[in-house]
Write a structure and sequence with these properties.
Blueprint (H helix, E strand, L loop, with lengths): L1 E2 L10 H14 L6 E7 L1 H12 L7 E5 L11 E8 H11 L3 H16 L7 H17 L45
Parallel strand pairs: 1-2, 2-4
Antiparallel strand pairs: 3-4
Helix pairs in contact: 1-4, 3-4, 4-5
């Protein structure tokens, strides 16, 4: 792991992060591979995002997978991740959990990308989210993502006398795409 500053921020437990990364790689079937992680600022991620993806905006995590470059199996280096500590701090604050938790969440997401997962479609997004939840659960981090909404009726049954429809105070169904995503 490389830190843009001389040392990791005091709010982060670097050995626990390294152990989590090892666990993620094992669970993804790439336990013999290594990865490189750069912890940097929003401005550094913005430059990398512009250079490599043509998007001149900051983002929380970027990934470069070498999986396809390995003839006949797993590469020694699965890939590289770049994580914005500025973005991780803001997202941790917004979600009400510690910086360490947000960094682990982003690293699980990034490792899933390195292993070939993507979230370009709704089905891929659901699969990747479930994978991230399993990876995080292996290191004791649970409950970060809301449960998938159960199918809710948008109309109540007809009342005697022909009245029907949604009642005031009854749950409103979630709007499509209302779930917060990052990365």
């Amino acid at each position: 792991m490389r830190w843009a500053g001389a040392r990791p921020p005091a709010a982060l437990d670097a050995p626990a992060i390294a152990a989590a990364l090892r666990e993620f790689l094992i669970r993804l079937g790439h336990g013999r591979c290594g990865i490189t992680v750069l912890f940097a600022s929003d401005s550094a991620l913005q430059r990398l995002n512009a250079r490599h993806r043509g998007k001149p905006t900051a983002t929380d995590i970027l990934s470069w997978s070498y999986l396809d470059d390995a003839p006949g199996g797993s590469p020694r280096l699965l890939g590289e991740l770049a994580l914005s500590l500025d973005r991780a701090r803001a997202q941790a604050r917004a979600n009400g959990w510690p910086l360490q938790t947000e960094v682990l969440r982003l690293l699980a997401h990034g490792c899933a990308h390195l292993a070939g997962y993507d979230h370009a479609t709704a089905a891929q997004d659901r699969e990747m989210r479930r994978l991230e939840e399993r990876l995080l659960a292996r290191i004791g981090v649970r409950g970060l993502y809301p449960a998938a909404p159960a199918h809710r009726r948008t109309r109540s049954p007809r009342k005697p006398g022909g009245q029907g429809g949604r009642q005031e105070g009854s749950p409103t169904p979630p709007k499509p795409g209302a779930r917060r995503r990052s990365g």
